[in-house]
Amino acid sequence: MIKMKNDMIAVIYLQPDQVRMRIVERPDFKIINNVQSGSFQIDTNGPTANYMANMEAIVDNIEGFKELARDYQVKNILFYGAREDLDEVTASYVRDQLEVRTGLTIEWLNNNQLMAELMSHIMTTLPDFKKMSKHCLYLLSIGLDSTTLAFFHHDQFEASWEIDLGGAHIHQLVERLNQTTTNPNEIIQDYINSKLEYLEPELKRHKKTVLLIQNSATLNARYIPKHEHLAKLPRDQFQDTLKHMLLTSDNYLQRYLGVNQQFPYALPNYLVIARMARIIAPQSIYVTDLSTMGGLSTGIAVDNTDDQQKRDNMIRTSADNMARRYGVDPSHSDFVTRFALQLFDQLKPIHRLNNHYRLLLEIAAKIDDIGNFINQEGHYRHSAYILEANPLIGLSDQDNRIIAEVARYHSAEVPTVSQSHYRHLDDDLQLPVAKLAAILRLVDALDDSRQQKISQLRLKLKGQRLVIKATANDDLVLEKWSFSKKSQLFTDVFGITPVLKEKEGR
């Protein structure tokens, strides 16, 4: 029997190509054991996340992981899975089958959540990150289904782009081209160029730019020393290897590169890195073996406050970027965000929502008006479908949907059973959406003129009335009219009638 460690947790992470488990000891997150399965089969003609076809292998490995966890007397096992391109219905089927066969309930994480975990982990764990990102740093993470590029400046996350360039997808294209042409490499390079070309105008070139490559097993194996997590990539060697890959056979390259498990994705990875380096023109290129599993086992799974703060700031930054992109009035957005959070904090005994909903309200307040970019008439509906098509980094599918629905109902429409979008929300989401929309709707009315006349709010609950005293530097005739129209939802949801009283400012 292995000696029991204090306060240990096991994290299982399911990906389309393998499943891993890490046992960590808290509070220092020391890795006690780290195991992984062999490679699963990925259908070259179907979705990347083909968990159904690999169910037997997945279950067998998880049962082995559970036995190992028992040897360590670990009682707390958390199970996460990469959602990838899995549709919602299939994801529910896979979840149910895994729960029946393993007794564990999987929590699906979308790519935006996984990237936020990875980035916060790298920022926290990599000792050189602050120095490397002092000027400009691009983090390129090459996944199976897609590739993500993130930009950092002065140790702070500033932007990210999800690119339809996953290693498995490119490999699938190579397989199909091999059946029709003797040399598909030129076509593959053109394909990669077409996916990256639109990004070029958005990317900044600076003399001291750093490119950091993550999730490239081939580069990790060749360049990162044992017990290290970072290595500088020699450009000459990289270019020479790429030339070999384009000209020589797979068998030779497999021996030359010294990797087996991810070999099919080696050429796609090299080609994406080479093209990205030409676009960014970095001064230095580094590789890191820090992984999403590291982010899960030291972040979300153990409620790491530092990592959570970094993730929340990424979410806020993404929302701010979206607001700028769609021309949101920053003064109005700041006003609404400020007072919406004040109402949320002071009305906690009434709404009884936790601080995660506070974050969702904050994000909704920042971007509820993005629909004006399309048309001011019905802008709330436009805001909703823009948000549905542009999920924010770090948020779950459910969180993104809540924000989209709160934006939909912040202005004219109200969340009732007659509204199809509201009617089709899960039952446990309907009330939180209505509560957040009621608060946001009330505050939005207080700046209906878009002149930020109000400098201070004071709230007092008197029986079934919520008295809001507003200190203003101008008359609030328009705001009072709008308030009287928009306050009904608040009354319907909370059973309390808001009353606006004006107090003249100095």
Automatic annotation (TrEMBL):
Signal peptide range in chain numbering: none
GO molecular function term, any single one: pyrophosphatase activity
Gene3D superfamilies listed in its UniProt record: Hypothetical protein af1432
All residue ranges annotated as the Ppx/GppA phosphatase C-terminal domain in the record: 317-465
Domain of life, per lineage: Bacteria
Family, per entry: Belongs to the GppA/Ppx family.
Record protein name field: Exopolyphosphatase
